[in-house]
Amino acid sequence: MTARDELINGNLRLVLSVIQRFTNRGEMMDDLFQVGCIGLMKAIDHFDISQNVRFSTYAVPMIIGEIRRYLRDNNAIRISRSIKDTAYRAMRAKEEYINKHQEEPTLHQISEMLGMPEIDVVVALESIVDPLSLYEPVFSDGDDMVYVLDQIGDQGCAEDWIDEISLKEAIAGLDEREKKILTLRFMRGLTQTEVSSEIGISQAQVSRLEKFAIEKIRS
Question: 0.90 cut: is pTM over it?
């Protein structure tokens, strides 16, 4: 047995510990183990013993990276490279903003940093979120397990669609200033004072127009 084989066999437990993080992905553990072993072998081949770093510290990210590439390449949902690039740019912009301002940026602020519409940022960020299985456990009480599927109601779906259509039609009936006020208040999360500053009217006017617009939608 070569020294390389001994290193591989001696670190199989490391691969097993890493793949435990991916047990809820619906993949066969044997497949993940084989992919993890490929990452382990790559780590062995590229490890520099002259560096003051433990092998496990170097190998774990390599194993995780190999498994993530496998999961990404075998994902049934294919995301375009441009959308992925936008998502990663958005995440970097968010991280830079947090480091600079010590607070989370709004969607509008991220879109301004990237110079693109908010909807494009939303689509990009949502595209890289791992899909949630309907059989993902969300609560356990002894022997009783509650899954995501149990939390999804099957009643009133048609009524919800009708309500949504009615809401869109009602919003379409508002004038541009009313639409802008509701957008700033409930989509960008601005206060009435902030809205009044951006639009150029008093806070009292914003409050009155907001109430009027909401009443118009409800009627």
Answer: no
Alpha carbons 132 and 138: distance in angstroms, whole number: 11
Q: What is the pLDDT of residues 4-29, one digit of tens each?
A: 788 888 888 889 988 887 776 667 78
- DSSP string over 99-113: HHHSSPPPHHHHHHH
Q: What is the pLDDT of residues 121-180, one digit of tens each?
A: 887 887 766 655 555 555 555 555 555 555 554 444 444 544 555 556 666 778 888 888
Q: Which two tokens stand for residue 23?
A: 């047990």
Integer Cα distance of 172 and 169 in angstroms = 5
Q: Are 181 and 195 spatial neighbours (Cβ–Cβ below 8 Å)? A: yes
Name the residue among 65, 63, 9 with its Cα closest to residue 36. 63
Q: Which two tokens stand for residue 72?
A: 């990404």
